[in-house]
Amino acid sequence: MTTSTEEAAATILVSCKQTRFHIENPVYQELDIEGLNITVTSGAGKAGAKPKGKARADGLEILANANLKLKAGVHYALIGRNGTGKSTILKAVAEKLIPGIPIQTRISILQQTASDGSDPVPEATSSLQKLELSSGNQFSVLEEVVDRATSRNEIQREIDVLQKAIENHESALAPLRAFRQVHHDRLKRELFEKDKDARLRSGTRGMAARKALIAFEKLVAESAERLAQKDDEIDEDTIKEETHQASDLLAELQSQLEPGKIADIEVKARSILSGLGFPKANFDKKVSTLSGGWKMRTNLASALLQPTDILILDEPTNFLDLLGIIWLQRFLLQLRETGPNPPTVVLVSHDRDFINTVCQELIILRDHELTYFRGDLTTYDASIRDKKLYLGRMRDAQEKQKAHMQQTIAQNIKQGKAAGDENKLRQAKSRQKKLDNRMGMEKSATGGRFKLNRDLEGYHFTARAGIEVPVDEKGVSILLPEAPDLRFPGPLVSLEKVTFKYPTTKKSVPQPIVLQDVNLTIHTGDRIGVVGLNGSGKSTLIKLLTDTTKPTSGIATRHPRLRMGYYSQHSVEDLQALGRSEPELTALSLLTRDVESALDEGEIRGLLGSLGLPGRTASDVPLTKLSGGQLVRLALARLLWQTPQLLILDEITTHLDFHTVTALADALGSWNGAILVVSHDRFLIRRVVEGERDSEGSEGEGSGEEEEERRRVVYLLKGGTLKVLERGVSGFEESLEKRVEKLIAG
């Protein structure tokens, strides 16, 4: 049975197969959806109308006949390239646009901000616990988090309505009127869910849902009639009964906001906020005064605090420092041990270490299908390499066998025709039939040896499946142009005993020290990593290195011929803002404007293509339609056309999928220029700065001789001082794990 819907401004089309069996006691932490199709369209259609084939073809197809299966309590990572629709799938689940998700299922979601652009998520309004940026409200951070977890604000509104009416001694009908109003408002909210459920279903279950909807609409209509009933039409017994019901409902609501319960929830909320990096002094700040990053942390805290069956987290680490990331890892791991029915977790993240620590299974989105792998990313990558190696060898062996058989067939035909030997010709025909129909995979789908009469099912199949070697899924390859020589030696950048203090207008107030006695020298080919928690002064250090800020004391020098490329952590947002101000601007037109005839169009296209923005993607797609990962590549192109000798990269992985992070790490690993990386991404620091290789060796690394000459240093910036981490990022990670243990214990 197939059902479909146009929901949320008619931009997401969903259809799937549903079981014909009614499930009396569903496990709300599980999903088992077969034949799932999701398409995103830009136009609005009639609500409830079934999408036609042409309408579906006009949209952007996300899933086609896929199976979405979630097992209760398991932690999943949804992985796939930028722009393939990961966020759209999560949105469809969270808003229950997929038929078969029970209305009673509690789903909490942390969504990416609308400006991220990493997935084709349409603008929509949510019918559930959608966690959006709440810049318009006047709640404090703590109030916002607690309210979302308890619906305290809505409950308090009902309490106020009922209490005011019951305490109104001037009107005997006031409690009845208040009770009817509260009851009617609840029915209208429930009607919205039942209406959506009826439109999501078809066939027998759809008919039952529509009958239930019609019956419920009658209840709402009757409630509206009671609400409009005149005073003189209400008898004494009804007044007495409904006044008593109003008092009972008020007592029930007040028990839900009992100070002891709220206090316990507030304790949990404070613990979560502290773990995510909120200073205690900021708990009482208005949410509307926070920056985008801190609002997203507030939303994340709300999602983690809510009681839920399925917890969905879309890039939860984007605005966290490494301490917050490690705390979140520990929190999610502890969720598995919370009671008999722990929530199912589905997350999207570019942080490989985070996925490897938290997730038990992978859901791979590729070619509009979902496949599953039990294990982490490292094991998955190894299995893909092994499969490619095995199938590649099998295919090569079969190609040699086919060539030999073809040669034998040709000889038999030639000899048979020359001698009139029918046996030779029959033998050639038999071998040709085997060559055409029986050469292919040596194993069946179950892993056993392939047998033609058992495994070749279906009248339309005439031959075995060919041997297909999996295509590498590391994302678009990235090639960086070589850095030119500087002609004469010397350090590229040098900071000697540099101190920086922000100026103050009052002489009596001492200047706060941001950096103190910092020494840092970068030479050609160096790999420098800088790690530290938010607020440790990393941004100030970058400003000193890029000469946008002058030191208060000390000496900052640069090589006179140095060309520096600086990737800011706000590069993607800046490009998105530029695209909104100039809607027709494309990657090609922007870069053409940047270079000012220093490069011709062919050279510009070559650079964009080498970074993964080829052809029409560069020339025809406006900036507003590019994904976050594509905008990162464009930002890199704007730096690399000048052929810099030094790249300073500040949180470059934020908008990239993990495949592209790997490709970028490989490209940076083999680049001949110097690199300074500021990042919370442990994988990037290990691969680019520390030179860590996977089991096959990093594909982009240079020769051994070059590696011996390359200086690799990871610095920790803490309390305004810069010191070398002897054990690299692993040592920093271990120290933060100890701090997280203290946070949890305290």
TrEMBL record:
UniProt entry keywords in alphabetical sequence: ATP-binding, Hydrolase, Nucleotide-binding, Repeat
CDD domains associated with the record: ABCF_EF-3 (cd03221)
UniProt keyword Hydrolase, yes or no: yes
Cited InterPro entries: AAA+_ATPase (IPR003593), ABC_tran_Xtn (IPR032781), ABC_transporter-like_ATP-bd (IPR003439), ABC_transporter-like_CS (IPR017871), ABCF (IPR050611), P-loop_NTPase (IPR027417)
Record-linked Pfam families: ABC_tran, ABC_tran_Xtn
Residue ranges of the region described as Disordered: 415-447
Domain ABC transporter stretches: 33-392, 493-722
GO molecular function: ATP binding; ATP hydrolysis activity
Gene3D superfamilies tied to this protein: P-loop containing nucleotide triphosphate hydrolases (3.40.50.300)
PANTHER family per UniProt: ATP-BINDING TRANSPORT PROTEIN-RELATED (PTHR19211), ATPASE, PUTATIVE (AFU_ORTHOLOGUE AFUA_1G16440)-RELATED (PTHR19211:SF135)
Designated name of the protein: P-loop containing nucleoside triphosphate hydrolase protein
Source organism of the structure: Hyaloscypha variabilis (strain UAMH 11265 / GT02V1 / F)
